[in-house]
Amino acid sequence: MVASLWLSWQDQVSLSASGGEAIVTGPDARIVLKPLAPEIFAAMQRLAPPGADEEQLAESILAAGTVDSLARWYYHVDQLRQRGLICRSLHADGRPLATLFPFCRAVPQSSRAALGSTSPETNRPAATDAGRGPCETASRRYVLSRFAYVRREQDELVLESPLAHARVIVHDARLMALLGALAAPKTLTELTQCADGLAPGLARGDSRAFLTLLREANMIDQFAPDASGSSREANSPADPALESWEFHDLLFHSRSRRGRSDNPFGGTFRMAHRPPPPALKAIVEQESYELYRPDIRQLEQADPPLAHVQERRRSLRQYAAQPLTARQLGEFLYRVARVKAQWQAQSPTAAGTQLMEFASRPYPAGGGLYELEFNVAIKACQGLAPGLYHYDPRRHCLERLAEMTRPVELLLDDAAASAGIAGESLQVLVILTARFERIAWKYESIAYALTLKHVGVVYQTMYLAATAMNLAPCALGCGDSDLFARAARTNYYVESSVGEFLLGSRVSEVLT
Ligand SMILES: Cc1cc2nc3c(=O)[nH]c(=O)nc-3n(C[C@H](O)[C@H](O)[C@H](O)COP(=O)(O)O)c2cc1C
To answer: What one-character-per-residue DSSP string does 127-148 give?
Structure first.
């Protein structure tokens, strides 16, 4: 049997009628449709899951009403689709092969073309999106968007894309063979031929219907021949703005901001089934070096004014012959990263109230969680032996993690290369790591994005402290997280490096 496209209500959507109007209510949207002809209301009643065949719905409306009723139906379906209230699925032999679930939020205007929007003149869907599948222009070719990807969620295969306001659940694994065939551009005929070989059991029309579903989810690029006969892109990739976006950047952006995701956002305490991670990293018994504690009151009096520091802040990559001292490093870390206060507070979570520990620092951090750790790789610092250290912000001391091992040397070499300077000239490399669980315990969808924001906050705090202290600071854009995990013997998934910053003695100029 050939697959057909079905329409059904999205999860948690209900239909009611009152005084000639129909009211469709979903978790995030409510729409009143009026005036509503009885044949259209009857069709809507058939959308209760598993729904009904789109073509049969259209035929029943035409049989009971007029061509105008059909135009009105398409218009309403389009309205409902734009608000994420309707699912479209590919059905064969009484079961779904794939279902497109729109996110339950209003779809912005710019994405409507991809979701089968109605033509303004006729209120009918544009020809290629009418549910009858892509145009069979023999030479038109289709290819999977470079932004589309497949992953497993529970025991289902999910197709997603940061260009989509929907996800496609693939219920029948034979469709994966069709996806594979779409790795390179194909005409509909070529795709159908591939399907015959790769996915026995799928009928000829199935590739076409699956393609329609993928196009609706904005997961297909089309190429049409131009006058010279060569192919050119015919839909979304023609948007030159997309060229700037690498796959991972657009995915991270779209999933850590509201709009293109229906995941819960913000402080949901999603890991509240586990005890809250501690405010501070546990102290491991190892060599530690107490650091100099400056008198903050005295610094408040003696420091150059903020505007002066801001104006003179620069990235400096040259150092004085004499390396910075352990006392300067102590003052720097005290100004930037020490624990200022510690307390406990109750946090309301879905798993009940949880007692959490907090430890504040001189810089701001989302939720006051302070998941960042400060590590220091020392090449040259008067009073401290070379090697890798972890800064304990509560005791204000350095704990030695490693001597100048090969991985520590490589971390320093990488940093020197990033700054375009000779490795021998380096003095101190501050490596920020994140204890991911501390922030992921509370924040959903945005945990890693918050961590990167915190890195920026700390960079500027370090720039300002170093400038006020007449030291040479320079932020770095990248580091090797695997290498750090090896050097410090941390578990990459528990704590890995997220930021690097160079520090050294300044060649000249004393701020007054
Ligand atoms: C997030 C970030 C990443 C940076 N990455 C590097 C880097 O990898 N190498 C480097 O030499 N400078 C790096 N810099 C320093 C910039 O080059 C510098 O801030 C910029 O040129 C402006 O100069 P200024 O800091 O002296 O005002 C970085 C700065 C920031 C904020």
So the answer is: GGGSSS-S---TT-EEEE-TT-
Report the C-alpha gap between 56 and 131 in whole angstroms: 12
Per-residue pLDDT at 106 exceeds 80: no
Residue nearest to atom 6 of ligand 1 (CA): 476
Q: How far apart are CA 261 and CA 161, in angstroms?
A: 10
Pocket of ligand 1 (CB under 6 A): 314-315, 317, 418-420, 459, 474-477
Judge if 248 and 363 occupy the same domain.
no
By residue count, the chain amounts to 512
> How many C-alpha atoms does 370 have within 13 Å on its Cβ side?
25
pLDDT digits (tens, 9 = 90+) for 424-438: 999 999 999 999 999
- Alpha-carbon distance values, 338 to 292, 369, 373, 398, 456 (Å): 12, 14, 11, 12, 18
Residues 147-174: pLDDT tens digits? 999 999 999 999 999 999 999 999 998 8
Count Cβ atoms within 10 A of the Cβ of residue 145 and give its class: 0-12 exposed, 13-18 middle, 19 or more buried. Answer: buried
Q: Report the b/e string of 227-256 with b at 16+ CB within 10 A.
A: eeeeeeebbbbeeeeeeebeeeebbeebbb
Question: Would residue 261 count as lying in a domain?
Answer: no
Mean pLDDT of 343-362: 94
**Averaged pLDDT for residues 249-256:** 97
Write b or e for each residue in 37-52: b if 16 or more Cβ atoms lie within 10 A of its Cβ, otherwise e. Answer: bebbeebbeebeeebb
* Residue whose CB lies within 8 A of the most ligand 1 atoms, among 309, 474, 498, for a mutation test: 474
* Beta-strand relationship, 288-290 and 166-170: unpaired
Same structural domain, 30 and 171 = yes
Residue 225, SS3 per DSSP:
strand
Q: What is the 3-state secondary structure (H, E, C) of 243-275?
A: HHCCHHHHHHHHHCCCCCCCCCCEECCCCCCCC
**CA angle at residue 111 from 107 to 117, to 5 degrees?**
85
Q: Is the pLDDT of residue 109 over 60?
A: no
Note down the domain range covering 410: 266-503
- 85 & 118 share domain: yes
What CA–CA distance (Å, rounded) separates 284 from 286? 6
Q: What is the pLDDT of residue 239?
A: 76
| pLDDT at 66 exceeding the cut of 50 | yes
Region 442-450 average pLDDT: 98
The alpha carbon of 475 and the centre of ligand 1 are apart by a number of angstroms equal to: 5
Determine the pLDDT at residue 286: 78
Could you tell me if 224 and 317 lie in one domain?
no
User: Between 511 and 280, whose confidence is greater?
Assistant: 280
Binned at pLDDT 50, 70 and 90, residue 208 comes out as confident
Q: In what order do the strands lie in the sheet with 186-187?
A: 186-187, 141-144, 220-225, 231-233
Look at the pTM and tell me if it is higher than 0.70.
Answer: yes
